[in-house]
Amino acid sequence: MRVGILTSGGDCQALNATMRGVGKSLYNLLGDVEIYGFLDGYKGLIYDEYRKMERSDFSGILTEGGTILGTSRTPFKQIREPDANGLDKVEAMKHTYRKLRLDCLVVLGGNGSLKTANLLSEEGLNVIGCPKTIDNDLYGTDMTFGFYSAVQVATNAIDCIHTTAASHGRVFIVEIMGHKVGLLTLYAGLAGGADIILVPEIPYDINAVCKKIAERHASGSRFSIVAIAEGAISKDESKLTKKELKKKLAEDRKNHPSVAYKLAKEIEEKTGAEVRVTVPGHTQRGGQPVPYDRVFATRIGAEAARMIKKEKYGVMLSLKNNEITTVPLADIAGKLKTVDPDSGIVKEAKMLGISFGDEE
Amino acid sequence: MRVGILTSGGDCQALNATMRGVGKSLYNLLGDVEIYGFLDGYKGLIYDEYRKMERSDFSGILTEGGTILGTSRTPFKQIREPDANGLDKVEAMKHTYRKLRLDCLVVLGGNGSLKTANLLSEEGLNVIGCPKTIDNDLYGTDMTFGFYSAVQVATNAIDCIHTTAASHGRVFIVEIMGHKVGLLTLYAGLAGGADIILVPEIPYDINAVCKKIAERHASGSRFSIVAIAEGAISKDESKLTKKELKKKLAEDRKNHPSVAYKLAKEIEEKTGAEVRVTVPGHTQRGGQPVPYDRVFATRIGAEAARMIKKEKYGVMLSLKNNEITTVPLADIAGKLKTVDPDSGIVKEAKMLGISFGDEE
Amino acid sequence: MRVGILTSGGDCQALNATMRGVGKSLYNLLGDVEIYGFLDGYKGLIYDEYRKMERSDFSGILTEGGTILGTSRTPFKQIREPDANGLDKVEAMKHTYRKLRLDCLVVLGGNGSLKTANLLSEEGLNVIGCPKTIDNDLYGTDMTFGFYSAVQVATNAIDCIHTTAASHGRVFIVEIMGHKVGLLTLYAGLAGGADIILVPEIPYDINAVCKKIAERHASGSRFSIVAIAEGAISKDESKLTKKELKKKLAEDRKNHPSVAYKLAKEIEEKTGAEVRVTVPGHTQRGGQPVPYDRVFATRIGAEAARMIKKEKYGVMLSLKNNEITTVPLADIAGKLKTVDPDSGIVKEAKMLGISFGDEE
Amino acid sequence: MRVGILTSGGDCQALNATMRGVGKSLYNLLGDVEIYGFLDGYKGLIYDEYRKMERSDFSGILTEGGTILGTSRTPFKQIREPDANGLDKVEAMKHTYRKLRLDCLVVLGGNGSLKTANLLSEEGLNVIGCPKTIDNDLYGTDMTFGFYSAVQVATNAIDCIHTTAASHGRVFIVEIMGHKVGLLTLYAGLAGGADIILVPEIPYDINAVCKKIAERHASGSRFSIVAIAEGAISKDESKLTKKELKKKLAEDRKNHPSVAYKLAKEIEEKTGAEVRVTVPGHTQRGGQPVPYDRVFATRIGAEAARMIKKEKYGVMLSLKNNEITTVPLADIAGKLKTVDPDSGIVKEAKMLGISFGDEE
Fold first, then answer.
1. For chain D, what percent of residues have pLDDT higher than 70?
2. Where in chain C is the domain with CATH 3.40.50.460?
């Protein structure tokens, strides 16, 4: 069999671990297999740039961060548009696929990338998706690889801030990745012992945030730690239309490089507290994958190989009840999993006294 | 309300995180609560040794390994026997419970400890169990806290061995905790990229193990890594009666401090390879809990508090499909969850070419 | 004997480890000793706020980040001015010292704090200084505690960025603490494998920086990593008077929250490359101390106790040729150790091809 | 120029970092250079097995544990003996060196390996040594690379044991690498907060050890941690002749796999305490190098390249007063640096109350 593979979108940990799982299992299950690794995501498929991957290429990469194939962000919208030279990208991908006589294409990607994967599936290619993203925002799976490794990095940041915060007596804001979905912030906030957790799905009231800080101060706590997602918005902002919100955020960005800096200024003005901002940024995508992700990625990879052997295509591998299963790409493409404000984990966090800034 | 709490059995990470969850949530949900922490597990309950725990006692312990209450191994069998002074331990525990006018007792424990918890429940005490153990071998829950933190430590050991093994060209054996259940070895073995994984549930054939090593050597690999559980047994041993096996293991122990040393000698004799043994031992119970465990423990603690508020007793908190729920102590006491040789994860490991030593 | 102790200035790792060394050794060497821990640095000494520290207070804090006594930044200049109520701070400190009949005061502090320590020494108090700072910029000692732990955190950030940078093909800027001195940036840059290292002591030419990036790109490297100290300045800026520079930096701050963002914009404009900024910020002061710092802090603490026993005051403990010795506070107060552009380590970095942005 | 390079002896962290330093600097300083990497240490030089190393071979290996060239232990004694086929190894090495028309050979090695390096130097080859070993026992340099990374691993083990020990109330013994020299045990013991540190250079009295444990127990401590070097010996053993000692240790080895197990039994018998043994073993040689080692190794590598350019041979790179310098191989070959019982660091440890088991 002839199998193509690519990694697409923002990179994360365990991309290599997943490819190792796919590659080792394919060589093991099929014996006779040719694997083509496309460079820099869909770009490689469009422009016919790849390298043949031998059995040995999949050795020694289990713990490596990043992706040995490179990746690129190629938004779904962009995929459907011709390139600068007028090339039809979808047709180009189909052409490369057929030229190499591929039996299937394995795509490691998040939301946008899997939308493209579904498109290719609809266009007649045999496609298998693997759920990649630090955001864990993919519909149809309990987990995505990369998530717990990013939680680790973000939690480490909060841990470090914790000791320094306790020494000085300040408010610290840690900005965690997540433009639309707050799961990473929620988990890292819980794991790091944040006092206030602000996520896009639960608009916050600045007064509730400041009240929580004041209460902690009044009860003798020397510091407060706020974990805020990049895309957190206030209650007022949540009432705007999409267009109005976009405009407002663009305005804000002129004064503050990100949401954390804006919040810091508001808290300083309202409470007089000294506020410090930390932005772990892209470190959340890097470093070695944690054991959870390594096991999960390895399992996903093995099952992807099994699906290829079974010639079961048009699906994404998925975790359900601790077992790896599949869901049709068509069922999940373009859908998001988000923080449910009424979910158990949010309620549990509130039981401990953690504020989401939504108290009346 | 008046709540007792204790940590029992082998210690693990996230015991303090769980108690923090219970304590913070109790103070938060009930306002008026008295919490009594019994020292060194059931011993404290038997001999009336405890300390009252204030709200502040639960602050700053989220990331601390160990248990601030101490623990002890008090096997179920021992609990039922009178102590050296003829004291009936069960009656003593009931006496302490009543003397302190407790409304309930929260037990953080593993298999044996929850058996005792169930006994106390049957004796009329209000008991809530929290699933603690590095082995993840508790029936009735998808996960126990401590497991992923122990996986982290064991995986780190394999990671370190990996680089040194690659430099020298040897066989390395890493012995991982688990006398009856191999889940910890299975997960750490997968996460660390072990070539051979030996667990109690899948008896191994020494010839299959050596064959795998020889195959790797023949294909140019400079080294092989074996992850073996403390309680792994050979196919021959698996055919013995329980009594015969016990006798044989006692004999073995005279010559080898543990199973890894025995296996090392066998491999050296059969293959001529240079073999090295590493025993991370009790480090697997120590260090800071990983984020997974911190989140999970916090959730368990919050739900324990909620159950207390609801006066729902005689249950163990449990993870099912990512939600925290409860199972009756009576349903799970004394039952083990083990590695299922036919489970998805074992099959997936085999797809990658990992040997469990059971090949024909 | 009666000994006071305080931690002053920006916090860092190993403050607790050092106090543990002082406290354990004092109890051990003197048997009969009373130790008074002043709260929040000099503030506690000024306003007579302290707690008596028992032998057990020094147990279990070796690995804890932060400081159990709290700290505050009280600049030397501020120390010499009366407080809001007209209180003479220096007199107040002397008063507290005498009221408690202290035999000596141990100050864990950096540059400013040791200047104050020297002042108190000149005023007749018995003072011993311990060299604390993540910047390693204290004159008169080869090393300060906190430095290598901060290097670890900053290096981890660069490590994480490395894997993500390699996947995407971008320029990444990591901003590392250090307003006046670039030692932390230099060491973390070397340890993390940065391609360009910019420190205050070696003004950079933006064209040299961009040239290095272009060269790397031309030779097939997919990414470049810049480690920049908070206080790095360009060659043009280095020619300004102190007053002019201050004004310019204030202007810059209006457009960019910090130097890294400014550099990012310049590089983007000049090279067209996609640039990302990461600011580990206060995480560099937090987390557990690395073994180097623990050993060093323990040694410093023991020798401080020995000096107290010998009644040798007016000195700072110092590392010279791997031995702990002392230097007079008067000799080092107010002096800085900086990156010497002609030192071995800078030359060695350049031999590897690392750019400091000062190439002609 | 034509440069050979090899890594010899027990592997450790930062071997790759050092080679990266050498390789990058050579390409940078000389432009025109050919580098030959010999496989598996001196074996590769003897049997003419090597690979040519391009500039790109030195990229991306800064943080990798192990050695990309492989290594082997080839004792000095063995080097001087003919091999199984009667080959004169020294002549074979000279032959390979000349056949490849090398200008010099860079050897990354410890004591034994540098003795061989010196022999080759005496035989007329141009040799440069780099001080590699986790033991830091090389004469003529303040530090060796690998040491602080091994300290990190060993300290992590003690840290993990600390939390579990505190929970249970036991004596824990951690066996740390070091057959002849106890520096690694001393530093890890100090960094991990061990209560008792036993090293080969300070023979211990089992009664002093047990007395210390009893004292801690009496003063309310729940546990004691012993850090023992593999080669630690008792006072009685220290009085034996070398031959007698060898015989006794061989006897001991029949009953106990290592010194820690023997000590455990003695303590159990004498104190009745429950004792647990942990043997981190080869993990101490593995994993990523810590920043200290990365910076140090990079500097060593750069200076090795500079020496080659200057054609200064017959030397080992060495750290003296934070600068990299050189010492003649002839001056240091075969000499050991050990723990000086009268050194500052040992005295400081004793000031804190740490026992070395040598108290009268």
1. 100
2. 149-285
For chain D, give every residue range classified as CATH 3.40.50.450: 2-146+289-332
Cβ neighbour number for residue A211 with a 10 Å cutoff: 16
Counted residue by residue, chain B has a size of 360
**Residue A179 is assigned to a ligand binding site:** yes
| Beta-bridge mates of residue B224 | B171
Mutation target vs C (from A19, A160, A177; most C CBs, 10 A cutoff): A160
Task: Give me the pLDDT at residue D150, please.
Answer: 98
Instruction: Please answer whether residues A275 and A267 qualify as being in contact, where contact means their C-beta atoms are separated by less than 8 angstroms.
Output: yes
C-beta atoms of A353 and B291 within 8 A: no
Q: Which residues of chain B have pLDDT under 50?
A: none
Q: Does C153 touch chain A (CB under 8 A)?
A: yes
Q: What is the pLDDT of residue A164?
A: 81
**Domain A149-285 falls under CATH 3.40.50.460:** yes
State how far residue C226 is from chain A, nearest Cα, in angstroms: 14
The DSSP bridge partners found for residue C326 are C317
Cα B318 to Cα B278: distance, rounded to the nearest angstrom: 34
Exposure string of D328-344, with b = 16+ CB inside 10 Å and e = fewer, is: ebeebbeeebbbeeeee
H/E stretch holding C23 reads: helix C15-30
Architecture of the domain defined by D2-146+289-332? 3-Layer(aba) Sandwich (3.40)
Q: Count Cβ atoms below 10 Å from residue C168 Cβ, excluding itself.
A: 22
Q: Is A284 annotated as a binding residue?
A: yes
Binding-site residue positions of D for Mg(2+): 111
**Contact predicate B186/B355, CB 8 Å:** no
Asked if A261 is an interface residue toward chain C (Cβ–Cβ < 8 A), one would say yes
pTM of the model: 0.96
In the structure encoding, which two tokens stand for residue B251, read together? 């004999």
- Residues B282, D285: C-beta atoms closer than 8 Å: no
The answer to whether the CB atoms of B70 and D285 lie below 8 A apart is no
Chain Cα centroid distance, residue B359: 28
Residue A169 CB-density burial (10 A; 0-12 exposed, 13-18 middle, 19+ buried): middle
| The residue type at A302 | A
pLDDT in tens, B63-87: 999 999 999 888 888 999 999 999 9
How confident is the model at residue C241, as a pLDDT? 96
Chain D interface includes C25 (CB < 8 A): yes
The end-to-end CA distance of chain D, in Å, is: 60
Which chain B residues in 273-312 lie under 8 Å from chain A, judged by CB atoms? Answer: 290-292, 294-295, 298-299, 301-303, 305-306
Side chain identity at residue B290, one-letter code:
V
Q: What is the 3-state secondary structure (H, E, C) of D76-110?
A: HHHHHCCCCCCCCHHHHHHHHHHHCCCCEEEEEEC
CB of D114 within 8 A of CB of D102? no
B74: annotated binding-site residue? yes
A55 carries a ligand binding annotation: no
Q: Do B278 and D277 touch (CB under 8 A)?
A: no
| D294 within 8 A of D149, measured Cβ to Cβ | no
What does the buried/exposed string (b/e) look like for D272-283 if buried means 16 or more CB atoms within 10 Å of the residue's CB?
Answer: ebebbbbbbbbb
* Cβ–Cβ gap D352/C321 under 8 Å: no
- SS3 assignment, position D7: strand
The nearest CA of chain C is from the CA of A68 a distance in Å of: 7
Q: Is D92 exposed, middle or buried (0-12, 13-18, 19+ CB in 10 A)?
A: middle
**Whose structure tokens read 């404000």?**
A341
Provide the ipTM: 0.96
Amino acid at C213: I
Q: What separation in angstroms does the CA of A12 have from each of A66, A117, A134, A145, A148?
A: 6, 18, 6, 8, 10
User: Tokens 């919040």, residue?
Assistant: A263
